Amino acid sequence: MGAAAAIAVMRLKEREVVDDFRAAGALTPSTAQSYSAMGFGETRAVKRLHRDAVIREASPGLYYLDEEVWIAVRRNRRRRAAILLSVIALIFLGFAVGFLRS
Fold first, then answer.
1. What angle do CA 92, 93, 95 make, to 5 degrees?
2. Tens digits of per-residue pLDDT, 53-70?
């Protein structure tokens, strides 16, 4: 599987976890729920979101989705992707100009 496909699958799984938290209503410390109550375990996507503070532990075993952090994480990912694509485009353009001049 290519790197881009692996990243796409990873992001899809994270969105599914976020959607599960939203559907369960676990959006504040007072509405936090356990993973088992929401119908899933501690998957890689959950671990990544917890590491990035998108999923927070309100009390032992009870978790909620921090929407503001989720929005910030997505914004930063998009920004990094745009910068990477811009750098790749500039490199490609540089090679194309160099090739046309020779």
1. 65
2. 999 999 999 999 999 999
